[in-house]
Amino acid sequence: MEVDAVAREMEEAVAPTCSWVRACALEDVPRLGARVVVTAQGSIALFRTADDQVFALLDRCPHKGGPLSQGIVFGRKVACPLHGWNVCLDTGQAVAPDEGCVPVYPVEVKEGVIFLQLRDPGVGQ
User: Fold this and answer.
1) pLDDT in tens, the chain (125 residues)
2) CA distances (Å), 110 to each of 24, 39, 75, 113, in order?
3) Mind spelling out the 3-state secondary structure of 29-94?
4) Which value, to the nearest 10 degrees, does the dihedral of the CA atoms of residues 48, 54, 60, 66 take?
5) Counting Cβ atoms within 10 Å, is residue 26 exposed (0-12), middle (13-18) or buried (19+)?
6) pLDDT at 56
7) What pLDDT score does 122 carry?
8) pLDDT of residue 9
9) Residue among 105, 60, 95 nearest 75 (CA)
10) How are strands ordered across the β-sheet holding 104-105?
11) For residues 53 and 76, is the Cβ–Cβ distance under 8 A?
C-alpha cells in the first residue's frame, strides 16, 4: 500500500465523522438576529449579519453561560445579554480584554437554506 493511501486511512480512522444537516431557511433568521437549533451537540445559535452572512455558535457565552442567541448582533460580533461580553461570530473568541471561547460550527447557505455541519452522533463523545 502506498504511503499516501495509508495516511488517508489513518486520518479517516481518527477524524470525527461529520454530516451536513438542514437547519432552517435563511429567512427564518432575522437580520442582526439569531435562531436556536437544538442538536445532539446542544443548542446552537445561528446568527445573521446585516449583509446576510450566517454564523453558528454554541448558544452559551464563555463567561457565565448566558444565551448568546438573545444578545445583540453588530457587525460580526454578538453581545451577551447577561454581562455584555462581546464574542466574534467567526471565531467564537471573546473580544479583549475578556477571555474565553465558544465552539463554532461550519455553515453553508444554498438556495436560501442554511446547512449546519455537525459531528455524527456517538463520534468523539
Assistant:
1) 455 554 455 445 445 688 999 999 999 999 999 999 999 889 999 999 999 999 999 999 999 999 999 999 999 999 999 999 999 999 999 999 999 999 999 999 999 999 999 987 654 44
2) 11, 20, 22, 5
3) CCCCEEEEEEECCEEEEEEECCCCCEEEEECCCCCCCCCHHHCEEECCEEECCCCCCEEECCCCEE
4) -10
5) middle
6) 98
7) 55
8) 54
9) 95
10) 33-39, 42-48, 54-58, 104-105
11) yes
Which residue reads 473580544 in cell numbers? Answer: 95
Q: In the numeric block, which cell numbers belong to residue 17?
A: 465523522
Residue located via cell numbers 445532539: 40
54: which strand partners? 48
CA-CA distance, 19 to 28, in Å (whole number)? 22
Torsion of CA 19, 92, 33, 107, to 10 degrees: -20
Q: State whether residue 26 is helix, strand or coil.
A: helix
Q: Which residue has the cell 493511501?
A: 5
Taking the complete model, does pTM exceed 0.85, yes or no? no
Label the pairing between strands 72-74 and 77-79: antiparallel
